[in-house]
User: Fold this.
Amino acid sequence: MAQVTLRINGYSHTLVCKDGEENHLLAMANEVEQRIEAIKAAAGQSGESRMLVMAALMMADDLFELRKRVEALESGQPAPAVPDPKPDAKLGRRLGRTAKRAEEIAADLDSP
Assistant:
């Protein structure tokens, strides 16, 4: 087993992975770091856990959209456009929509 130290949002995290998977793990950490940097650029510095949650939600949103695209392609339908994963002027609005969806879900879970 290999040990890899990742640096995300200024914090070091040491993880264990299978031998040969180090570069893949580093690439995934880099993707998370890029998302956090985009969040900081669009919304400013926030708490560590909030930024990680927002980055995770953005990545989950991308995954959801890609799954819809694959399902459409597999069924022979035209695939919906994939959102540009690069940070741009629309990122703030996207973060707002993602945060709103997360808050709605949390409110549903909290209500009896």
